UniProtKB/TrEMBL annotation:
<dbReference type="InterPro" id="IPR055394">
    <property type="entry name" value="Zn_ribbon_TiaS"/>
</dbReference>
<feature type="domain" description="TiaS FLD">
    <location>
        <begin position="133"/>
        <end position="245"/>
    </location>
</feature>
<dbReference type="GO" id="GO:0002101">
    <property type="term" value="P:tRNA wobble cytosine modification"/>
</dbReference>
<keyword id="KW-0819">tRNA processing</keyword>
<feature type="domain" description="TiaS C-terminal zinc ribbon">
    <location>
        <begin position="343"/>
        <end position="382"/>
    </location>
</feature>
<protein>
    <recommendedName>
        <fullName>tRNA(Ile2) 2-agmatinylcytidine synthetase TiaS</fullName>
        <ecNumber>6.3.4.22</ecNumber>
    </recommendedName>
</protein>
<keyword id="KW-0067">ATP-binding</keyword>
<keyword id="KW-0963">Cytoplasm</keyword>
<feature type="domain" description="TiaS-like TCKD">
    <location>
        <begin position="3"/>
        <end position="126"/>
    </location>
</feature>
<keyword id="KW-0436">Ligase</keyword>
<dbReference type="Pfam" id="PF23783">
    <property type="entry name" value="Zn_ribbon_TiaS"/>
</dbReference>
<comment type="similarity">
    <text>Belongs to the TiaS family.</text>
</comment>
<dbReference type="Pfam" id="PF08489">
    <property type="entry name" value="TiaS_FLD"/>
</dbReference>
<dbReference type="InterPro" id="IPR053870">
    <property type="entry name" value="TiaS-like_TCKD"/>
</dbReference>
<dbReference type="InterPro" id="IPR013696">
    <property type="entry name" value="TiaS_FLD"/>
</dbReference>
<dbReference type="GO" id="GO:0016879">
    <property type="term" value="F:ligase activity, forming carbon-nitrogen bonds"/>
</dbReference>
<comment type="function">
    <text>ATP-dependent agmatine transferase that catalyzes the formation of 2-agmatinylcytidine (agm2C) at the wobble position (C34) of tRNA(Ile2), converting the codon specificity from AUG to AUA.</text>
</comment>
Amino acid sequence: MWIGIDDTDSPKGMCTTYLGALLARRLEESGMEIRSLRLIRLNPTIIWKTRGNAAIAIEAEGDPDYAFRIASDLIEVLADLSCDRTNPGLVVCDGDRPPAAFAEEAITGFCTIEGAIAACKSVGARYALWKNGRGIIGAVAAVAAELEDATSEYLVYRDLRRHESRRYVDPSSLRLAEEMTYPGTWDTCDPGNKTIVCVPHTPDPVLFGIRGNDPVHVSLARSLVISEIPVLEAIFETNQGTDAHLIAGKIPNLEEGRSYIVAGTVASSPKTGIGGHVALLISDHGYYLTCMAYEPTKGFRDIIRALLPGDTVIACGSFKNGSLNLEKIQIISSPPFRVEDAPLCDICGKKMTSAGKGKGYKCRVCGARSREPCISYQERTLHPGWYEVPPSARRHLARPLCRGEPVTPGFPEDYSREDYI
Ligand code: ATP
């Protein structure tokens, strides 16, 4: 059977992954076999999310009625039901799983509560909703998701009662864990910005989480971390770091709230605005798209600032409020910069000056004239290739480049990459 749960936390505490890990342990203690524990990230632009729009699913062998009862009881006890934004949902399927298309839409787009209930009914699943029941969307999506590309996260939890106290996790042990296991693990630290990424600052039970390619790498990294004594630990199979949210897009057909991989040509010099946010205008067949590299993306903004009109790029990110929030970018071509200057006089060798708009150049010494400028090409510091935001600014779903280049079915829609090379 599959058990799905979502929307149990509030900004003041709790975390659906903690409830999932605890439920898995309770079911195991009752004699059930736990086959997998999943953490599925859904559309990162959803406004109802508390933090990272995560839902959980457990695959287990056992009595579905019993599992449904234990899961309901845990939700009643642990979910912060006093919070307006906490609207749990629970589903238990012991036959077919809901259609994978539901999960795809929940990860890349928008679903409804009615759609989630219909998906439960279509497979005869048991389900329950608390308050407005929005969590049923994430619960069904978590159970329905097909993980074609899967990664792991080793989550370590502290006592719920300590939710407001400072976490103790030794930073040097985290740095060592990353050094020893990268690129099998990633986003434990952000060496470039000298910050720790894997220890949250929110009042929830997560002490730290190690992300990586598989259970072996994350377990090895975890074994190197020194911290306060945890109360619970679990390894989740996830869609984090897989780019599952990206769909192939084409300017100007991008829809608000979806995330895209999209090609274009730099249309004007990037502009740095108030707060250090950088705006990049790209175009495709006469249509324009603004791509944003916000201040938290730190050094990534220097890459964007170094782009010039005419460079060709492939951009990845979420389309929100009419612009694409960059997660990574591929520079396809950044040809040498063409510089036009006044030529040297053929007769006396002095540098000519402009003879007026559209009139070419004139030598102030001997009076000779020339129509043609002197053309030179400046080599660029920016080279073709992929560039990404630093770990501290990375979206949960964004695939780090240490896992390889993005692979997005259907991209480029009716382009070939060769058009740009
Ligand atoms: P939690 O730890 O509680 O899961 P969270 O940051 O993951 O916190 P939630 O509190 O679960 O966020 O809030 C997200 C809400 O949005 C959930 O009710 C979920 O069912 C719903 N939701 C998620 N993805 C979509 C989607 N694509 N379309 C519509 N609703 C969605």
